[in-house]
Write a structure and sequence with these properties.
With 727 residues, the protein is α/β, with parallel strands linked by helices. The chain has five domains: 4-198, Rossmann fold (3-Layer(aba) Sandwich); 206-369 and 378-383, P-loop containing nucleotide triphosphate hydrolases (Rossmann fold); 406-508, Orthogonal Bundle (Arc Repressor Mutant, subunit A); 534-606, DNA polymerase, domain 1 (Orthogonal Bundle), CATH 1.10.150.80; 624-726, Arc Repressor Mutant, subunit A. Helices cover 49% and strands 11% of the residues. It is globular, with a radius of gyration of 29 Å.
Amino acid sequence: MDLHSPLKKFFGFNKFKGLQEEVITSIVNNHNTFVIMPTGGGKSLCYQLPALMAEGTAIVVSPLIALMKNQVDAIRGISEQHGVAHVLNSSLNKTDVAQVKADIASGITKLLYVAPESLIKEEYVTFLRTQKISFVAIDEAHCISEWGHDFRPEYRNLKHIISAIDSVPVICLTATATEKVQEDILKTLGITDANRFKASFNRANLFYEVRPKTKEVDKDIIRFVKQREGKSGIIYCLSRKKVEEVAQILQVNGIKAVPYHAGLDAKTRVRHQDMFLMEDCDVVVATIAFGMGIDKPDVRFVIHHDIPKSLESYYQETGRAGRDDGEGYCLAFYAYKDIEKLEKFMASKPVAEQEIGHALLQEVVGYAETSMNRRKYLLHYFGEDFDAINGDGADMDDNSRNPKKKHEAKDNVVKLLKVVKETLQKYKSKDVVNTIIGKENALLTSHKTHLQPYFGIGKDRFAPYWMALIRQVLVVHFIKKEIEQYGVVKLTKEGENYIQNPTSFMMTEDHSYNAENDNAIITNAKTSAGVADERLVKILKSLRKKVAIKQGIPPFAIFQDPSLEDMALKYPITLAELATVHGVGEGKARKFGKDFVKLISEYVDENDVLRPDDLIVKSTGVNSGLKLFVIQNTDKKLPLEDISKSKGLEMKELIKEMEVIIFSGTKLNIDYAIDDLLDEEQQEEIYEYFMEAETDDIEEALNEFDGDYDEDELRLMRIKFFNEVGN
C-alpha cells in the first residue's frame, strides 16, 4: 500500500522520518505494534496517519490533558471537519460530551483522545462498544510499568477495558523503555506477539553537561539564560515550591519566565503553556507535569535544577530540546544531597517499590558522576552501543570536551571497604566516613568504634573526599545500600573480592566551573563578563587586610571571599551598588564600603573597564518578610525552636536565614539563645578560634574542635562573632 500520498495529503510531508513508514504499515495491516522512539522522532504521526486513513475511530489513551489539547488542535488544523479529533476527559460538560458522541456515531471523528481515568467510566465503555473502533493507541506507554519512570496504576487496567470495548489491534508508543520495562508493558497488555520497532536513542544535536550544584545555582542559571536571550528553554525542578521560587527570581532579573505545575489551576496552566508555545515568554520553570507531548520544535535548552529520579525521566525531559535538529543544550545541576533527599522520600514506601526506586537512582548517580562520554553512558543504559570516538555527536558532552581529572585511589578503596567490613556493615555512609576520618559521635562511642585500630585510618583526607569515593564505589557495585535498614552500607561479593585482589581504581575529580567554561562550550553564545577580574580580587584582598588590621578583626569578618569575587565581577562604584553584591547588604556597605568603592572606582577609570549591568542578581523579596520576622522575634528573645516552628523551618534553615541577615550587615543579637546552649568558657573558646582563624569555614571549625561542638553550635557562635566584630 502506498502511504506517501496520504502522508502528503494530510501532513504535507514528502517522506517519512526514521521508522515511521514500517510502523504505520504494521498498524494498517492490523498487527499489535510496539514502538520505542525518542522524543522528537515523530511518534504521534505513527498513529495519526493510520487513524485518518482507516474506517472508524481510533482511541488514543494519553496521560495528560495538555498533551491531548495540543494534538487535537494540530489535527483539527489539517482537516475541514472540526470533529475530526476530540478529547474525552473531565474538562467537558454534558453538552460537549453529547457533541463528541454524535461526531463519533456519524463517522466524523477519526481520533478520540482519552485519559485512562475516563476510559474506566461505564457510560463511555458502553457507548464505545457500539461504535466502529479502528485501533487503540497507548501513548506514553511506560506509565504501564512499575519499573517505568512515571508509573500510573490506572494504566494497569487498560487490557481489560480494551477487551470490553472491542478486540482491536493495540499500538503502544513510548520515548523511553529499558528491556525490563518493555517486557512488563507487553505482558501487562497481553500483546507479547506485537511487532516491535525501536529507533536509535541517539540525539546527536543535544549537548549534555552536568555541573556541581552549589549555593550559586540561581546565579548560574540566570547567567546561562541571559547568554541565550530570546531563546526558548525549560527548567525542571522537583517541587512546586522550587518552581515558584525559580520562576520568580528569573522574572525579577528581567527574564520572561512562567511557572508550570499541577498545583496551578487549569486555566493558568493552559495560559502559561500557550505563552510558551506562542513565544510570549522564553522560559517555563516546571515540574515534570510539563512537556509530555508539547510539540515545540525550537526549545534550545533544558536545565535540570534538581536531578531527576531516573535516567528515563532525564532522557525524556532533555529530549524536549532541539526537536528541529537545531541547537539543544541539556544542563543538569547535581548535588548528592538531592539524591539523599529522594531516598528519604522513598523510605515510607513498600520495600519492593523502594528497591526499584533505589536501583533507578543509582543509575542517575552513575551518570552524574561518570567521567566517560555521557552519550555512550545514556545509550548503553537503553541497550544501545555507541562509538565514543566516531559516533554521531561523539564530542557533544562536557566529559569529551573537558575530560575530568582522575587519580589512583586503589589503597583508599581498600581502606574504605575494610572499614565497612570491620564495623560489621552496620553503618550508613556518614558514620563510615566519621570512622575513617576519626570523628567521634554518640553512635560510634556506644559501639566502641573509636577504640578500634582502624578508627581514623583516613584522617589525611577530608570527609567530602571519602563521601565522593563511597559514591564512586557504589556505582561499580563494590558496596550497596541496604533497603530494609534505610541507607546502611553493605559489602557486595565484588567488594569482598576487591579487598583480596585490589586492582587500579581511578577516582574521578569534579569539573571546576565558572562562566569561562560556559563560554568555552557554547558556540556563538553572547559572551558575558562571567569571570571575576583576578587582578582586582588581589587588590581588594590587600585592602581588606589593611582594614582588618586597623579594625583588629579577621579579614573574612569584613567581606568574605565570594563577596570580593562578586565585586570583581560587577565593579560597584557606589554604596548602593555595593549593597547588591553577594553577601554584603546595606549595613555592611555603610560600615566598611567607602574604601572599597573608592578603590574600585579608581580601578575602573584607570583600566577603562566596561561595567556589566546585567549580572546583578536581584532577590525576589520573598524572604524580606521572613527576615523581618526573625529580627523582631530574636529582639523579643523568643526561643529559636519557637521561631523555626512557627515558620515551618528546620533549625538548620533558620540558622541559614540568620546567616544571610548577619552577613549582609544587619545586627542580630542571639546571645540569649547561645547562653542556653553553651557555657561562658565554651563560648570564649569558639570566639577566640574565629578571632584567630584564617577562614570562617564551618567544616574547618568542625575538624579543629574534633566533635566537641556540633555544626549548629558553631554556626550560631559564628553569627554572634560576626554580630560583634563584623557589623
